Every structure is written in structure tokens, then in C-alpha cells.
Amino acid sequence: MKKKKVVKDSLEEVSDELASKPVALGCPKTGKELVCYAERIAVVGGERYLVAFPKDPAVAIAFDENGEVSPVPNDDPIMDELFPLAEACVADLGPGVTLLRTPTTLTVQGLNELVEEAKDMEAEGGDSEGGEEKQEVGEAEEDDDDDEEDADEVELLGEFLLEGEEFLIVRFLEPILILAKEHTPGKYFLIDEEEEQDAIPVVDEMLCGDATI
């Protein structure tokens, strides 16, 4: 009997073309896209995955559950009610800052630019409305640091109420790992949740051992 070839789990460099610009990863269910930067190609269990990280900051709508920040899943039906309120809250952070209902994780367009602008203003000895907001956010995060481990993992961007219940908008401080498969040449689709749960721990472990990242 002919032995089946075993493909070892591994990481590969992405092509120069793929690494040169952001790539839109499509969601087969919703048709929406998440714009990411390609980092590596991962081979796991014989399957090839594009390893990527969101171009814009990844955020979540969450609530406080016994002192812990619990994100609301993107596909939870209540998200239809929460998103418009969160969108308005994020818009108050500054001009050009927009909450996007992207697949896998919500993202905020224009937030990086706002932060950089605030840093530049601070370096020049000035200030701006956006800079003041970021300072307030930083102070809120520091206040929670003594009581919550989550303060090391997320940054509070805003708060709002829905039917008397408080919800938080938090930014993930650690990069969100995204996996996708090539559907047709140059076209990538996000993988489903079940496959993601199996593959991400393996890819994450390989990335931790990759000294080039």
C-alpha cells in the first residue's frame, strides 16, 4: 500500500505583490469584506491559509460581566440595535473616524490617523479635540488597571446605553489574527468559525516561534 505523504505544518513568506498592499478578505455568508495586511502563508493539516491582520484597529462592542469585559459576538441579533449607537459614539471621537461593521471583527477607520495627529499636536506643545478625547480614554483605562486584567488587553474608546444597559466600545491592544483561503487567484475568503477554532491555535504557536515577525 502506498503511504500517504504527510505535509508538515509550516509558515511561508507571502509574495512581494501580496505584501505590497492591503488585501480584501471576503465573507461568503454576508458578502462583506475585511481589509487586512498579509503576513504569512500557513500550512496546517495540509490546508493553506493566508495569515493576515486587520488594516484598521479591531474593536468590539462589549459589556461588563462581573468585572470582566465580554464582547458581543458579531453575529448576535442584538448587534442590529447596538451598532448604530456604537457608530454614533465612535464618530464623536473625531472627524473622519468611522465604525465599520466588518466580518469577524468590527474595525474603526481613521482612528490611527486621529492618534497620530494627537501625538503630533502633543509633541508640538499644542492640543486638539481628538487629542483630549484620547487622553480621557487613556485615563479611564488606567483607572481600571488595578481591578481588571482586561485593561492590559483592551482600551476603552467609549460608552453608550441601550434600554438602560451600559455597553462599552473597546479596542483590542493585541493584533487580531485572521485566516483566509484563496478561492480564486487573488481572491480570498475568510474561513468559517469551526475551521478557525482548529487552525488559529496552531498558526498562533508557529507565529510566536517565528523570529522574523
Number of strands: 12
- Structural domains: how many: 2
If you compute it from the alpha carbons, what radius of gyration comes out, rounded to the nearest whole angstrom?
19 Å
| Total of DSSP H or I helical runs spanning 4+ residues | 5
Flag low-confidence runs. Answer: 128-150
The helical percent reads 25-40%
The separation of the N and C termini measures 42 Å
| Portion in strands | 25-35%
Most strands sheet: 6 strands, antiparallel
Task: Give the CA-based shape.
Answer: globular
What is the mean pLDDT? 86
Order of helices and strands: EHEEEEEHEEHHEEEEH
Secondary structural class: alpha+beta
Q: How would you describe the overall organization of this protein?
A:
With 213 residues, the protein is α+β, with helices and mostly antiparallel strands. It folds into two domains: 10-55 and 177-208; 58-172, no CATH class. Helix content is 29%, strand content 35%. It contains five helices and twelve strands. It has helices at residues 16-19, 79-91, 111-123, 129-144, 193-208; strands spanning 10-12, 23-26, 33-44, 47-54, 58-65, 68-71, 98-100, 106-109, 154-162, 165-172, 178-184, 187-190. A hairpin with a 2-residue loop joins strand 3 and strand 4 (47-54). Helix 3 (111-123) crosses helix 4 (129-144). The longest helix is centred in the middle third of the chain and has 16 residues, at 129-144. Residues 128-150 have low confidence and may be disordered.
Brief overview:
The protein is of the alpha+beta class and 213 residues long. The chain has 2 domains: 10-55 and 177-208; 58-172, no CATH class. It has helices spanning 16-19, 79-91, 111-123, 129-144, 193-208; strands spanning 10-12, 23-26, 33-44, 47-54, 58-65, 68-71, 98-100, 106-109, 154-162, 165-172, 178-184, 187-190.
